């Protein structure tokens, strides 16, 4: 079967699909078959058996989707021959049932344009084919909405709030799920992967010697995927090793993540690194997380003022007071006290449901899976789905606190 010249109407994008999987074939036909902008060709069979049917001289606008399924050796050899054939200008999207680091590296070395892992959603398939057909030079990057959670004190519950906020954003789309990525920037003590019971796959040590290798394909290798559809960037723990990675490598990683997702949520470490300012400046929504104690509020107020001093007209930090519990006839902090201390930087109080949070962590699931419609999620939803303040303004009052600097930010 020769692709070029067969029903090749002007202006149409040709998608050639090679698959021996009847289920995937049905998905492809349902996804592309009804479009009057796409000329679909399906070649049934394993690549090694049908590679002669693929015209290597097809127009560069054509996309080939090659279903490798279990990636047998014969199919991999056939794919390598296809990619190295003289005159080939055929962008290839490889589809596999599983994808480990070795297979991903092999596909990258073959210069496969992109790859997907089954099960593949129709939206993901269309988006990937469009990206590959247009080419990276003509595809405008998306501009993600970035939510950053920064702890004012240790143990404030930043990771729990970041995860739940990411789940809210993931499910905020009007026509299905929005592409959302949770990034754990605590490379030494990060807990996002543990809380979600997934394997961390980010290896900055491998990227650091050659940061130019970091592209969308390599990012896909280092992403972990939660069953909900949430993408997670997290590194394995290095508890006995305190490393400060090259800030250019970290910012390149974050720029790449931000250009490939609708929403990005950063779970920040308390320690201030050389790249921290860049992350905060690039945020659309910046939340400082404190606990409902007098020392916690003091730390939060100082941190907000230090951020104002360092970032100037950058994003306006807002304080989330976590695990707040208001009791009648109690001498503890009241919400009015918290608002008075924090002033305009106060964002909200998150109710104390420690038992619920602990069960979610122990089970490795989001809070909503343990108890749908809980008060934590309801409060966070009101916060993260509301518009962020457009610009920072200098904090009022505070006396000597206005001159405070972060002691660890030198």
| pLDDT averaged over residues | 80
Order of helices and strands: EHEHEHEHEHEHEHHHEEHEHEHEHEHHH
Please count the beta strands (DSSP E, at least 2 residues each): 13
Question: Can you summarize the main beta sheet?
Answer: 8 strands, mixed
> What gross morphology would you assign?
elongated
Strand order of the largest sheet: 8-9-7-10-6-11-12-13
Any low-confidence stretches, pLDDT <50, length ≥5?
A: 1-10, 56-61, 137-141, 392-410
Structural class: alpha/beta
- Helix amount: 25-40%
The N- and C-terminal alpha carbons lie at a distance of 65 Å
In DSSP terms (H or I, runs of 4 or more residues), the helix count works out at 16
Strand content: 15-25%
Rg calculated over all Cα atoms: 25 Å
Task: Describe the protein's architecture and organization.
- By secondary structure, the chain is of the alpha/beta class.
- The chain has 16 helices and 13 strands.
- Helix content is 36%, strand content 18%.
- The strands form 2 sheets. The protein has an 8-stranded mixed sheet, sandwiched between helices.
- α13 links the parallel β12 (317-324) and β13 (346-351).
- α1 packs across α5 (122-134), α4 runs antiparallel to α9 and α6 (158-170) packs across α16.
- The longest helix has 18 residues, at 294-311.
- Mean pLDDT is 80; it is low at 1-10, 56-61, 137-141 and 392-410.
Task: List its salient traits.
410 residues, alpha/beta, eight-stranded mixed sheet, 13 strands, 36% helix, disordered C terminus
């Amino acid at each position: 079967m020769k692709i070029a010249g067969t029903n090749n109407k002007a202006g149409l994008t040709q998608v050639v699909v090679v698959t021996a999987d009847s289920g995937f074939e049905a998905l492809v036909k349902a996804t592309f078959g009804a479009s009057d902008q796409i000329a679909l060709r399906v070649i049934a069979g394993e690549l090694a058996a049908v590679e002669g049917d693929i015209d290597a001289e097809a127009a560069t606008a054509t996309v080939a989707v090659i279903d490798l399924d279990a990636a047998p050796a014969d199919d991999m050899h056939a794919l390598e021959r296809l990619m190295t054939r003289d005159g080939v200008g055929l962008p290839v999207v490889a589809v596999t049932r599983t994808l480990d680091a070795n297979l991903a590296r092999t596909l990258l070395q073959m210069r496969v344009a992109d790859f997907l892992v089954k099960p593949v959603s129709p939206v993901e398939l269309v988006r990937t084919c469009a990206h590959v057909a247009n080419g990276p030079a003509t595809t405008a990057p998306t501009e993600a909405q970035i939510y950053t959670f920064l702890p004012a004190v240790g143990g404030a519950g930043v990771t729990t709030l970041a995860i739940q906020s990411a789940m809210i954003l993931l499910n905020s789309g009007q026509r299905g799920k929005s592409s959302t990525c949770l990034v754990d920037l605590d490379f030494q003590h990060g807990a996002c992967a543990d809380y979600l019971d997934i394997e961390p796959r980010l290896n900055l040590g491998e990227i650091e010697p050659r940061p130019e290798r970091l592209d969308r394909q390599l990012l896909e290798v280092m992403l972990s995927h939660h069953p909900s559809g949430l993408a997670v960037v997290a590194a394995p723990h290095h508890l006995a090793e305190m490393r400060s990675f090259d800030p250019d490598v970290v910012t390149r990683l974050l720029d790449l993540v931000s250009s490939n997702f609708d929403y990005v949520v950063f779970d920040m470490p308390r320690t201030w690194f050389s790249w921290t300012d860049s992350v905060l400046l690039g945020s659309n929504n910046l939340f400082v997380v404190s606990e409902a104690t007098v020392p916690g509020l003091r730390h939060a107020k100082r941190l907000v003022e230090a951020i104002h001093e360092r970032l100037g007209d950058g994003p306006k930090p807002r304080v989330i007071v976590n695990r707040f519990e208001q009791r009648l006839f109690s001498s503890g902090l009241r919400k009015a006290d918290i608002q008075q201390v924090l002033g305009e930087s106060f964002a909200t109080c998150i109710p104390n449901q420690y038992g619920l949070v602990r069960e979610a962590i122990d089970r490795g699931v989001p809070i909503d899976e343990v108890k749908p419609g809980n008060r934590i999620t309801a409060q966070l939803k009101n916060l993260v789905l509301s518009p962020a303040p457009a610009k920072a303004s200098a904090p009022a009052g505070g006396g000597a606190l206005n001159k405070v600097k972060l002691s660890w930010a030198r």
